User: Fold this.
Amino acid sequence: MSQTDVDAVFEHVMAARAAAEGPIVVGISGFCGAGKSTLARALVERADGIVRIRGDDFLDPARSHRRSGDWSGVERERLADEVLRPFREGRASEFRPYDWGAGRLGEPRPLPSAEVLVVDLIGLFHPDTVGLLDVRIWVDLDLETAARRGKARDEALGRRHDRLWDEVWVPNERDFAERFRPRDHAHLIVDAR
Assistant:
């Protein structure tokens, strides 16, 4: 994704914020390895008043490592209740990020106060959460390339998840895309080639 793409996304988000009566939630989704987190971090770096909640904080590690037609390992209900609804309503809340080191939900943290909240997550454009996202951005990359990039990223971090990629995550992505057509729910599509 180019700097021009990031600039265009930033301008779109700022226009949506200017037109809104309160804080907005920006959802970034796409296949595993497509570049969702890269785009989310780039947006946060662009301006004060933009904060990010990592989608990985709302994954159930056991269920996200199993086959599922709807990415059941994504804890959408917890994300909606602890983050999306309270943020959009401008009310104080706490959320519990998953503590990957301890293997359980972490200690509650205060929900940040800001004008724009960015959430990047697989399986985000689902009926349970899509209506709570004021701006929906799809990071567009074919599944094969996204998986190849994701595997390379994991390997660089010392994680060998090839079997999970091949037997669980890629089939989950394919099933989710076929069932929910997340790309069709995007307000903005960013080419990640």
In short: The longest strand covers residues 24-30. Helices lie at 3-19, 36-46, 76-89, 143-156, 162-180.
